[in-house]
Amino acid sequence: SPSPLHAAIGPHRRLAFARAPLSDLKAVKDAAGGTVNDVVLAVVAGALRGWLHARGLRADGVELRACVPVSTHPVQHDGRLGNQLAQAVAPLPVGEADPVARLHQVTAAMEGLKDSHGAVGAQQIAATEDLAPPTILARASRLDFASSAYDLLVTNIPGPQQPLYLLGRRLTGLYPVSFLSDRRALAVAAMSYDGAVAFGLIGDLDAMPDVEVVADELGIALDELLLATTGRRRQRERAGPR
Predict the structure, then answer these.
(1) Which of 70, 86, 92, 124 could form a disulfide with 64, with the two C-beta atoms 3.0–4.6 Å apart?
(2) What is the crossing angle of helices 99-117 and 211-230, to 10°?
(3) How far is CA 8 from CA 12, 102, 118, 209, 232, in A?
C-alpha cells in the first residue's frame, strides 16, 4: 500500500515542536545499547505508529524508511570531513509494538549501514571543525532526494552542551527546522543543546494538518521506551519554543 507520508507537496507548511532531556535518551541508550541517534530513530518510529493509530490506520506490519544524512568518510587528521554528506536509508519499524524490540531493530540496521558504507555517526560529524549544526542542515538540503526509497527525512545533529549567550542573554533552546523533499509530507529534525534534545517537525499544510499529533507522540514514544528500558518515567520538558 502507498505510504501515508507520500503526497503532493504545496508551497505552504505547518510546524510543530517537541523537547526532551538528553539524559533520558542517553539512559535508554545505556540500558538497551546502540547510540543516541538510534534512540532518536526508534522514538520517531514509535511516534509515527501512534500517528497512524490516531488517523485510524493500521500500523502492525508497517515499515517506513527514513533518509538519514551521513558522511561516508571518517574525519581527517586536521579535523575536517573527508567528503560531502551522503544519504543513507534506515528502516523505521513502525509495525513493531514492543518499543525495545523497535529500538533493537533500528540499532541492528544502523550497524549494518555503518559496516557496509563506512558511515560516520552524527556525534563524529558534529565534532568536526568545518561543520557547525546549521551547516549540516544546509549541506543536507543539497543532497539528491529524488529516490523513492524512503518516506521521510530524519536528521539528528548534536549541538553544544554548554549554554550560549548573545549580548548577555542566554539562549534557552535551539529548535531545528528541516525541509520537505519531493512528495514527502513530513520531515523531522532533532538537535541537542545544553542538556536537552529539541525536535522540529515540518509538514505540508494540506497533507499534514495533524503534524502536532506526531510531535505529541514523540513524547509518548520516549515515555514508553524509557519505562521499558530503565523502569522510570520521563522528566517533563516544555513542548515547544519559549
Answers:
(1) 92
(2) 100
(3) 12, 29, 34, 14, 41
- Residue 153 amino acid letter: L
* Percent of the chain topping pLDDT 90: 62
> CA angle 223-224-227, nearest 5°?
80
pLDDT one-digit tens code per residue, 144-154 = 555 558 899 99
pLDDT(106) > 70: yes
Q: 152-158 and 64-71 as β-strands: parallel, antiparallel, unpaired? A: parallel
Number of Cβ within 10 Å of residue 100's Cβ equals 16
Model-level pTM? 0.83
Query: Given this model, what pLDDT does residue 9 score?
Result: 93
- Single-letter amino acid, residue 189: A
Cβ 219 vs Cβ 25: under 8 Å: no
CB-based contacts of 17: which residues, under 8 Å, 6+ apart?
175, 198, 199, 200, 201, 215, 239, 240, 241
HSE value, Cβ hemisphere, 13 Å, CA-based, for 199? 32
Of 146, 205, 209, 199, nearest in space to 21 by CA: 199
C-alpha cell read off for 197: 534534545
Alpha helices in the chain (DSSP H): 22-32, 36-54, 99-117, 122-126, 133-140, 211-230
Confidence of residue 1 (pLDDT cuts 50, 70, 90): low
CA atoms lying within 13 Å on the CB side of residue 98: 5
